[in-house]
Amino acid sequence: MEGEEDGYEEGARGEEGEEGQDVPGNALWTRGSATLPDLPKTEEGKWVVYLEKHDSLGLLTTGTGRKPSGIVTVLLRKYWPGLYRAVSDGPNGPKKLALKWDDYHAAPCGVMTTTTEDGRRVAPTCAQVVLRTFWEFYKLSSGMDHQEATAVLEKMAKKNLRDALYRVRKLAITHYFAEKGKRKNKDRVIAENLTIEDDAGWQSICPTWCVNKKDGWSALVRYWTDDEEFKARSIQNKANRGSGGTHNQGNKPFPLYKKDMVAANGGQEIPRIQVWQAAHKKKELVEGKVVYYGKTEESVDSYKNAFKKLHGEDSDPLLEPFDEMAVMISGHGKPHGRTSILNEVHKPTITLPRIRNMTSSSGVCMPPCPRCLIQTSDDARMMEAYEQLQEEFQHKMHEYEVANSASREHMQEQTKALFAALTAGAPPPQYVEPPVVPPLPKMPTKAEFLAQFHGGTPGSSTRSNNPFGRAAASSPDASPAERTPLHFGGPSPGHSAGVSPRRESLMMLSAAKLVVCR
Fold first, then answer.
1. DSSP letters along 171-209, please?
2. Which segments of 377-491 are extended strands (E)?
3. Which of 59, 33, 55 has its CA nearest to residue 158?
4. Distances (CA, A) of 235 to 228, 229, 241, 253, 293
5. pTM over 0.85
6. With 485 labelled, which of 183, 189, 442, 497 sits at a CA distance of 20 to 30 A?
7. How far is CA 294 from CA 8, 285, 290, 340, 370, in A?
8. Alpha-carbon span 205 to 173, nearest angstrom
């Protein structure tokens, strides 16, 4: 990607020296800062851009022309708000440090103030200035929607700003060591975790685009050196990136990488999946064999299997046009928001649940999710236990119905005897307690039973309740205290809103007396 210039003044261009070697300061070459080109005088002189993919614009103009990404980076540096007061907060609001593209939308651009008809001075936001200036250099190819292109441009600005602030810190450190006669490139800065210890050292290498925003540069340095959240995130991101790399594209976008491969192949078209595989191939051979980054081989093999299941064993997944359904099936959808292959190259238009419905109706069987394979043994034991619980529930339900029917018949006999005695003027018969009715049994739902089976609580994670996982929670040796007991219904030991059989009989007796009195 163009726009990796560090924004430092250009020094003497001489021999750079070996890595880490002491050389005279004026023998080191520091890159010059990129500047904006002259504005085109006519509309026809603007460079033509097109929608390269969902988050970038490509240069369509043949011959000379600056890439849109590079111009965006230069504009972001030129109109960086530094420490600013948001327009919505007014002139007395708190100052904030611009670290995100949202800050450009909130910060006023003081160099572009205009005067309204009533004499008020109004400043557009920095984001408005960046977008407006960009379209002074470029125009859209025919058929493109300007609103859609602007949305893509904002995505580019958001990404380029994040990259620019990451690079400027590393390049500031390399420039600091260069001033002291030591060459430390960015790779060495990252590998050795180099930094500048004193604030004076940071201030001595302030980049040119921060010269008029020294307070913003100082705040940015404090953010890098003192902010604990930034440090923690930096450590985590470094661990996530690893040390082995992920692809060999460098800063070249995928469409341009593919274009160069096609040109090197004599203009013959190359399938997209082959280009992606080549972009993830390591340049160095290991024992004479081609080696790929990460899980590239595993992902491609999985894609091949899914493709052949959909299109037959005679199909060739690497030569035929790629199938997004095979992409989704091979990677089990988009775990963590990313497909296993062609991520950010093709945006899937179909979801995994829809694919499941389509494949089940067509007879194609989807491979099981890896997590489902782990749970297979647990599922068999769980279903056996669930069926046993259903049998117990049916037995308890039968006992409840028999007891409840006997209690009802007893109450009816008591009521008839009571009415007969009251009608004849005889004393009421002696009250006899009805048969005991057990609590109404309750069959737990699958979620409740699953939580009980795995030693958890319904609606909660089983791993958080048991640090030893499902195996320990569902083992026969687990103590009963570790499990959440199931409640099979019925009145609780405390207050219950239900009516007991004795209370029901007393209510019927009161009603009978009321009838006799009338």
1. HHHHHHHHHTTB---HHHHHHHT----SHHHHHHT--GG
2. none
3. 55
4. 11, 10, 10, 27, 22
5. no
6. 497
7. 36, 15, 13, 11, 18
8. 8
